Amino acid sequence: MRDVWIVIPAFNEATVISDVVGDVRLVFDNVVCVDDGSRDDTAEQAWRAGAHVVRHPVNLGQGAAIQTGVEYARSRPGAAVFATFDADGQHRIADVIRMVNRLRTEDLDIVVGTRFADGTPNNMPTLRRLVFPLIAKLSPASRKLGLTDAHNGLRVFDKAVADGLNLTMSGMAHASEIVALIVENGWRVAEEPVEILYTDYSMSKGQPLVNGVNIIFDGLLRKRMRR
Amino acid sequence: MNWIQVLLIAAVLGVLVYLLRSRRSAQAKAWVKIGYVLFVLAAVYAIVRPDDTTVVANWLGVDRGADLLEYALIVAFLFTTISTYMRFKDLELRYAQLARAVALEGARAPEPH
């Protein structure tokens, strides 16, 4: 797994980042943590846990942090497989390993996690259970690809995708932007069922659902932006 | 001439002077300035002869000139709002690229074990 790079965007995660990086490092050597201008010592904690640390001088948003992490990782010698992984501990390493193996064995450029592979997960809060599939259905790109969960933070992709990734949406609209880029570039995509650990901590850090309005609005404007 | 007409003309001319004196970007904004000059001429005309706007309004199927001006104002306001929003988004993107360059410059690799 020496050619795998795990990209972890983090904003004010000092209490958990050390454990999350430590867990990932049990399996994967290369971790880059992008500290998105945190006010706590997230960067220091991540670095002590063995991650490469890139620190935004100001807070830019999760999309910008992912872009920064991928740009750092793709410039490292030997990097071939990349994964985005949330800093709040809601993803499972076992899921990443399975997705990496799938990327290596099947004819794919990108594997995205889904929470809705066999119906809706029982542990998911009710509102999210209703809203996330709706967003996926509203997005023409997601429909075209048959994706069920556009806003899953867990993605594994190859060098072609990493080189082609150019996220212009700094905030949360980056998830739909990634889906749009998959369509535009013709990347081969598949979904892999993953489990999300909805801890109290990850729930408290989660997006207020009304932010979905921003996601949809920014997505509509994206086409009009100079790239 | 009413006092309100004097005040409005003074305000419009004030905007004109401000625009012509600003040296922000000489060539790119030239057409914008020409547009503003035309706007100022039309504005002064409409202030001096307000009833003429009603004639134009009637051509377009609107009863009063004042209503026509309000519609134009709403459209202009929406246009300004959207173009400002787009410009902010564009600035945000460049700002992110700048911050990213700074961040990558100062990246820290873990100490080798």
Key attributes of the depicted protein:
heterodimer, A: 227 residues, alpha/beta, Spore Coat Polysaccharide Biosynthesis Protein SpsA, Chain A, 7-stranded mixed sheet, 10 helices, 42% helix, B: 113 residues, mainly alpha, 2 domains, 4 helices, 79% helix
Structure, explained:
The complex is a heterodimer of chains A (227) and B (113). Chain A is an alpha/beta fold and 227 residues long. Chain A has a single domain, classed as Spore Coat Polysaccharide Biosynthesis Protein SpsA, Chain A. Chain A is built from 10 helices and 7 strands. Chain B has 113 residues and is mainly alpha-helical. Helix content of chain B is 79%, strand content 0%. In chain B, helix 3 packs across helix 4. At the A-B interface, strand 3 and helix 3 of A face helix 4 of B.
Brief digest:
Chain A has about 230 residues and is of the alpha/beta class. Chain A is about 40% helix and about 15% strand. Chain B has two domains: about 50 residues; about 45 residues.
How are the SSEs ordered, and which strands pair?
The complex is a heterodimer of chains A (227) and B (113).
Chain A: E1 4-10, H1 17-25, E2 30-35, H2 42-48, E3 52-55, H3 62-74, E4 81-84, H4 93-105, E5 110-114, H5 126-138, H6 140-145, E6 155-158, H7 159-164, H8 174-185, E7 189-193, H9 200-205, H10 212-222
Parallel strand pairs in A: 1-2, 1-4, 2-3, 5-7
Antiparallel strand pairs in A: 4-6, 5-6
Chain B: H1 3-21, H2 30-48, H3 50-59, H4 65-105
Helix pairs in contact in B: 1-2, 2-3, 3-4
Number of helical stretches of at least 4 residues of chain A: 10
Shape of chain B: elongated
List the quaternary state of the chains.
heterodimer
Q: What is the 3D shape of chain A?
A: globular
- Integer average pLDDT of chain B: 83
Radius of gyration of chain B: 23 Å
Strand order of the largest sheet of chain A: 3-2-1-4-6-5-7
Mean pLDDT of chain A: 85
How far is the N terminus from the C terminus of chain A?
34 Å
Q: In total, how many beta strands of chain B?
A: 0
Tell me the major beta sheet of chain A: 7 strands, mixed
Q: Uncertain runs of chain B with pLDDT below 50, 5 residues or more?
A: none
> How many structural domains are formed by the residues of chain B?
2
